[in-house]
Structure formats: C-alpha cells, structure tokens
Amino acid sequence: MTSEERHLRHHWEPTLDAVQLVSNRREFADRNSRDVQNQTPNESRPPMGDNVGSSTGTTSLHLPASMKLTGEDNWPLFKEAIENLLDVNGLGKFISVRTKPPKQVDDEDESDSAEYTKWKEWKANDSKAKLILLYNIDKSLVGLILGKKTAKEMMDSLNQRYEGSGWVTKYHALVEFYTIKYDDFDSLAEFIVAYKNAIEKMEALKIHPQQPLHYTMLFIAALSDKFGMWAERQRSLARTATRPASLDDLIANISDEARHSKDDPSGALSPPPSVDVEPRPNIESPTANNERPNSEHIEPPLDFEPPLDFDREPPLDEQPRGEQPLDEQPPGLERHVQEKRAKRAYCVSCQENKEDWKPYGYEKRLQRSQISWALGTGATSAAQAPTNKRKDTRGYRVRGSRTQWYCPTSLSYYTIKESSPIAACVMLLLPEKDVSQLLHCLTSTQCQELLNALTSALGAFSGEKTTSCQPVIHQPIRSHIVTKAGNASLFMPVSDTSTTAIKVVTISGNGGDLNGIINIFSPEGRLMGLLGAVEATAFRTALATMSLFTRCTSLRRTRVVIFGSGNQAEWHARLALLLVPEEVKTITFINRGRQRLEKLSRRLLPQLQQRYPNVYINILPKEGTEDFDGRLRSELSASDVIFCCTPSTEPLFPHFYLQSTDNGAFKPRFISMIGSYKPHMQEIDSITLLSGGGRIYVDSKEACLEESGELIKANVRAEQLVEIGELFVPQQKLEEVTVPRGCNVVFKCVGMGIMDLVIGRKLLDIASESGFGNQIDGF
Ligand SMILES: NC(=O)c1ccc[n+]([C@@H]2O[C@H](COP(=O)([O-])OP(=O)(O)OC[C@H]3O[C@@H](n4cnc5c(N)ncnc54)[C@H](OP(=O)(O)O)[C@@H]3O)[C@@H](O)[C@H]2O)c1
C-alpha cells in the first residue's frame, strides 16, 4: 500500500488537495501508460488498464486513457470499464445497488470492536473505490462527484448525469425490455447481449416483472418471428414442463439451433454471451517480434491494432497466384480470399490455404467486453466503435458485421462479411457419415424445408397423372443384378426433368452390410454430387410418413408406438419429435429381438431425452419379456400413433389389441407401414388395413398394389387408395386431413425414386451451405 492510499484509508475527505493528488496521480498513470505502450512485445500486460501497483502489486487502479470518462460520448464504455476495474480490485460491491453498508461506527470506544473493525474496513475499501473513480474521470468532470460521501453516491451522480433517473428512466427500461425483437439486431449473439442487458437494467432500476417467467416467455416471443418452430416448441414445453426452462437453458438451446441452421450465421457462430469466462491469453500485436502464438484459438487483446491497411483491398500483385482475382470474390471480403466453402480460406498475407479455419469466436466463450469487440467491424477495439452504433454499455450494434477471422501465420484478424456461393462446377461427395451427421443436426426449419420439397414432388407426381401434358417425372422400373458371389445390387433411376438421379443399393451375399449411393446429375448429365444412400433413404421414407402425419391435425398424437429397431424406426421417432414437438409425449419402441433394441436404446435415448426432456421414451422387446402380449396390448390400446418399420411376414398385432382395455370405445389412430415390400410380407392384418373408412393412403397406387403384401392379401383395389401426392397437388393443397368418424388414418409406403431425388438434391444443397462433404473441382 502506498503512503497516499494509507492516508486516504484513514482520513478521506474529498478536498481540492485530493483532486490535486488525483491529478498528480493521473500524470503518473499517463506516464506509466506510455511506458506500457512502449513495452517490448514479450512483456506481459495487465488485462485492463495501466498497472500502477497496489497493495498486492498486481491489481490496477487506472483505465487506459481511451476509456476514462470524458463526457456523454464515452459514458457507456467508461461505465462498463469502471465496473470491470472495480470488480478486478474486489470493489464492485461499493457501487452496487444491492449492497448495504454496515452500521457506521465512528469511535472504537463507543461500540464493540468487531463492528468498528467492520466499519473501518468498509470505509477504507469504499475510499479506495472513490479514489479509482476519481482517477478515471476527466479533470473537467471531477465537480460531478466531489463532496459525495461514498463511491456509490459518486456513481449515482454520474448515472443521473448521463442516464437520467426516476420514472422516465424506468419507463424507457420497460419499453426497451418489452419491445426487444430479434429483427433489430444483426445476429443472435447481439440480440442475446441486448436482452440480458435490458434485464440487468431493469434489475438495477428495481423493476421486477411479476413473474420471473416473463424473462423466458418474452425471450421466446422476441425470437418467434425468426425461429418460429423453435418458439412453438419452447412454448409447448413450457406448458407441460414440471420445471420451466431457465433463460440460460433457452439461450443455450437457441444458440445450438442457430448453429445448425443458416438463418443466422454470424450470431449462430458466436457463443452465447455472459457465460463462463476463459482466461484470456496474452497476445501481442501482429508485428510483435515475429513470434507466433502457440495456438490458433487466441483471442485478441482489447486494444489490438490491426495493420494500417486493414480496410484496403490488396493490390493485384499481392493477390495469390492461381487464385481467383479479388474482384471475382463476393463483396465485403477483405484481404482473405474465401474459397468455395465457409471452412476454407486463403490468407493473402502468408499465402497459405487455411483448411480448417473457424470463424473467430466459434465454440469459444468470450468475456462480455470481448464480445463487444468481436461484434465490431471497422472498430478494432471497443473504444473505437462509433457512439451511434453502440447499443449500450455491453454490446455494439454494428450493422454489416459478420465473422472475425484469425490467421495464425500472419497474425491478423479480418472480417469476412459474406459466404461465397458454391462454384457451379464443383461436385460434392457426401459420404454416409456426413449424411448422417448432417441429418442429425437438422433444425426444424431445415426439416420443414425438406418436407416441403418432398410434398411438392409428390404433388407433381400425382398431379401429372390427371393431366394430358407430357410428364416431367420419370421413374422407370428398377433393375437388379445378383452376382455369382450372391451380392444383389438394385438400380433405381429417376428424373424430374430438371435433375436426374440413380440410386444403387447392394446387399452383400453373406447377409452382411447394406451399401448404397445416390448419384445426382444436372439435366445435361454433369455429376452434381454423390451421397450415401442408407441414412438418406431412412430419412426420406420417414419424411414421407410425416407428410401425412403432420396434416392429421384432428387426431391425438400424444402416445406413439414404433415397431422396429433399425434406421427407419429411429427416423420415424426423430422426425415426429422434430415436426410435431408440442404433441408427442411418449414413444415406445417395440421389437422382435432384444439385442438391437437395447443397442438403439443406449445410443438414441440419451440424445432424445436431452433434446426433449419432457418426452418419455421406452422400449419393449418381445424376446425375454414376460407377458409380452399383455404389455403389447396395453401399449397399443393406449396408443394414438403406430409406425410399423419391419419386414415382418405376419401381422405385428391383432386388430382387437387396438380396442380400449377399459371400455372398448373406439379411438382413431394414425397407422403407417413402410417395412413390407414383398407380397409375402405383412405388418398389419387386413381388418386394421381396412379400418380407414374405405380409404388407404399410399405413396404410389401402382407400386403399392404390386409390392405391398398387406394390400395383396386384402385384395385391395385402386379405387380404395388415395395417393398422398393428391393432397399436395398445386392449387388444391390440403392443410388438414379429415378423418371420418370411427375410422383410422392408414398409410402404406413402398418408396419411390422421386423421393431419393428431391431429398438427395436438397441434402447436397444443405451440405454445401453448411460445409459438409468434400468438393471436387472440374469433374
Ligand atoms: N418403404 C420404403 O420406402 C422403405 C425404404 C427402405 C427400407 N424399407 C424397409 O423398412 C424396414 C425397416 O428398415 P430398416 O432399415 O430399419 O431395417 P433394419 O435396420 O434391418 O431393421 C429391421 C427391423 O425389423 C425387425 N424385423 C426383421 N424381421 C422381422 C420379422 N420377421 N418380424 C418382426 N420384426 C422383424 C428387426 O428386428 P430384429 O432386431 O429382431 O431383427 C429390426 O428391428 C425394412 O423392411 C426395409 O426393407 C422401406
């Protein structure tokens, strides 16, 4: 402790002498600040401000000159910085509205010594906080805080001067909170920062909504225009949850959702603010000593200065040889040339390709002040952000901001404002694992887009049967080869005239793996992409079921039973939850064998349970379950939805199992079968098949009449069938499927090539946008 501090600790009176002291001290600090700026790059710097030494020798009492209070213009920055500085010194509570000072005891003899010590300690620390405030405001403003007895009074005085007080302030805080909307911000991260700030502001003004739920419900409402499905899901969960989600839960959830969608690239890639803070490594300016940091994941210092030509387009001779000239790059790309995919970039400073660059901030947790920095564009530090672009003390609303990038070789940070489009001549390879990964992180919005693409294609397929126009959809009969080794390959060609595809699936002769590829060609025959067919097929089949299921809005869809334990069963569960999240409450997987079902359960249940904590998921294996039939019957009689996903050769349950075990009353259900595809296969009995009031929905009348064992056994005729595409014929689209009284909705699907084509094509698009797969040039 310095002698000045010791003096202040015991005899603090804000006199002009003290101002002089502060002024002297400021000169010292400024000198010190200059010294700090002249430090060699390897010398370590304090996290914020000039280190003038303190009782511990490690804390700092001064802010950098650029952050000291000079007036209204830099008040928000000062406020943020001074709060941090006081926090760092352990003095934050002395300006907090929540802290109550201890009882004032002026003379040790008049009170017990414990109280006196407490008061003395408080007073000393409060004096230190006052000193810090005095150090860090311009001399011309000192009059605003002179004569104030405590640091809190000083801060209140400044608050009143620059932010106002009373009802008007409260009114503005309330309006700000209740009208906050995602659309007013450039990214999700910015919105979240602003939302949290609005809450903090209200709390500081002692405005408390009647129910804490306001915070979460308004958060959902503010995002509902942009993330409609997500908002619906959250509202529905809130209605039923025993413990409502907290604001932090919602922030984590929406950040996750946005990360996997293209809706909000910059915000999605930024971490949710105000989370755990990683220690900020010390890095020096790009020119420092030519030393490179050890890690790519280094955060810039607050006062990081980019090279002088930061905003300048590189001259032609700086452009990389063999790369596209910059004027062919998307607008807003600065110095770094982005190649075809978001994940790859070229740094013109070091002339290297950066294969695995990540947008700055991705998967990282930043301090709030650093988020301000990361959100800036032209501004290279929080201090430089223009006043009119500041939202408030904690974030900057800088329009056009996208993602900061860091090149570890040239030690530079740059902003890439737009993603470059996929070059038209690139072919995309999407192996099975990438298809699987992509499908597993689909958002409900993307899933809805895929569903729309599928229903449009089904509508076109059924629609053209009733017109005399030349067809645009061609699905020639599939052919197959069985080799001497017993490997059977199926070839399924299809064209919708604008794209052609062929799926090739091989079942190995030794009863082993199933392998498949979907090839997608341009109309001229150029190969646009190849993708693994196994998971994509399961997905598109379940999506076909969903095209009808989502429209059966008059049916209860709470209790779902799924027969099977393979990919198809899994995707029926995933899509039902993704597309009808607010209704599904229980899912029971029922399977013949135990082993595969338990394997599925171990893998799938934790994922689904985490994502849908209010949905109860369980399994029922036939193998090894006592009184399986009794339990099967009770599951089925309670069910609202039955998805059959097995190649069973006999009905999975008798029709009477659907009757209520209580009163025998009829309950309308959704029943689908996608598993059986040969005349000897049958997943449900004929009574159940015909329980739809003379109506069986199918994907293709011709294919189902030829391949479906259930239809063949029940001698079903074409007039009894309704193609789901008929529901989606343009101009006649039905939003809701009507269910005749006393009837079920029964759907049979054997699959069509057109489904592979539209879903395969759309998945390639999504993969390109999201950086999945491998691109091959000039194929
Ligand atoms: N409609 C379409 O467009 C379409 C497209 C692709 C596939 N599929 C068909 O959908 C079905 C499921 O596909 P997947 O990929 O999920 O298959 P998978 O992984 O092989 O799973 C098949 C499931 O069916 C069960 N199963 C097999 N034979 C059975 C029988 N005789 N009785 C009762 N259960 C039986 C299996 O149970 P265990 O564990 O006891 O063996 C397993 O749970 C297959 O039949 C497949 O051909 C349809």
TrEMBL record:
One of its GO terms (cellular component) is cytoplasm. Gene3D superfamilies: NAD(P)-binding Rossmann-like Domain, ornithine cyclodeaminase, domain 1. Pfam families: Retrotran_gag_2. It comes from the Eukaryota. Signal peptide: none annotated. Residues 52-61 have a biased composition (Polar residues). Residues 309-321 have a biased composition (Basic and acidic residues). Residues 28-63, 258-339 are annotated as: Disordered. This is Ornithine cyclodeaminase. It comes from Elaphomyces granulatus.
